[in-house]
Amino acid sequence: MWHLSPKALIDLAEGARPEHAFPHLETCARCQRRLADVRLALSTAALADVPEPSPLFWDHLSDRIRQAVRSEGPPPRHDWTTPRLSWRLAALGGALGIVVAAALVWQVAPRRGADRAAAVVTRGSEVQKSTQGASEAPFTFVADLAEGLEWETAAEAGLTTRFGTVDDTLTDLSSDERLELQRLLNEALSRPGA
Amino acid sequence: MASARSTGVALSMAWTVARGSARERVAPAADQDAGASAKPSLVELGEAELVSQCLDGTPGAFDLVVERHRRSIYQLCYRFVANHEDASDLTQEVFLRAYRGLRSFQGHSSLSTWLYRIAVNVSLTRVSAKAPVAEPIENHQPVDTRAESPPERLLRHERAAQVRAAVRTLPARQRAALILRVYHEMSHQEIARSLGSSVGSVKANVFHALRNLKKRLDNEPR
């Protein structure tokens, strides 16, 4: 046997629908009891009024809110009735972002990176030659790896230099300067406690 | 060099558009200044116009929004947390969030419904994060010595406190639906919009809230 749904009981309890719209109610004691319970609970719930705060509270609350809003600064000056303005600015911002990103990524960084990549990759053989007589095994190993290494592959592996870093500066050294640096490094590493 | 030139062109375009937009905003404001004597006061404005004034930064516009809705928002928050301090903090938070999100008010619902939605979200977040605080035993009420005897008044206050405590134990969505329906007389459609649910779900939540409320109160000693 079916009974009245919660939605129907709420509609009846609130007077949104008349009882004669539910003939089942006349013959079902269970639904009659449930409807009576809902009505009683509604009237009981309505008893729970909120304690009224002090009359001074409201102005104090408004002052607090005003202070908090003032610290936020002025609201965004955007007219919500004209979305075309925000659309235009959003489109311009997107286009500007694309132009700047393209300029930086495709023309600035890769040029510098490519130059340094060329210095690293193509000078692998120079490194190999310049390490004659020194502890050359590790340098030879790296030089062998660097030979034939593509720029994109090195970039994906995070091996490329970045502007302003020490390894970036090293690529600007001449061959003699590089040799001298290697000598100094070997000397420092051969000291006891290094 | 080519990249710098293209960047410069893009920046120049952006500046030109921004200046044009600024002129559009200044021109209407200038017209408004010229007709300032015929401008209605803030109190006479409808909700949409008042919100627009708030977004324009008109002094006192948002203060008026606060003044109109502070009591109902405070009462709603109180029913969730059942103490004055938390309700006061939540009310401030509600209006602060409303101020930040004013541009998102599209006018599809009333401003009070929109504020209620913020208040419900803020209150539900608070009650889920914080352990419930027992309601103070004494709540100063305006006393009407003519209407009821002291024992009757005391019984009424105690019963009200019991009901508030029972409401606080309800599951979140049942509590929210009950509060908005019974105490703020929102329609089921408005409640559904505020809670992001359907009318059927709202009615079901109200029903179950009332049934659970009755169970809890029946277990309370009178």
Keywords:
heterodimer; A: about 190 residues; mainly alpha; elongated; B: about 220 residues; 9 helices; about 70% helix; about 0% strand; globular
H/E series of chain A, N to C?
Answer: HHHHHHHHHH
Mean pLDDT of chain A: 73
- End-to-end separation of chain A: 90 Å
What's the oligomerization state?
heterodimer
Unreliable runs of chain A, pLDDT <50, ≥5 residues? Answer: 127-134
Strands of chain A, total number: 0
Binned, the helix content of chain A reads 55-70%
Q: What is the strand content of chain A?
A: under 5%
Which range does the strand content of chain B fall in? Answer: under 5%
Number of beta strands of chain B: 0
Fraction of helical residues of chain B: over 70%
Number of helices of chain A: 10
Largest sheet of chain A: none
Specify the number of helices of chain B.
Answer: 9
Poorly predicted sequence stretches spanning 5 or more consecutive residues of chain B:
21-36
Backbone CA Rg of chain B:
24 Å
Distance between the termini of chain B: 86 Å
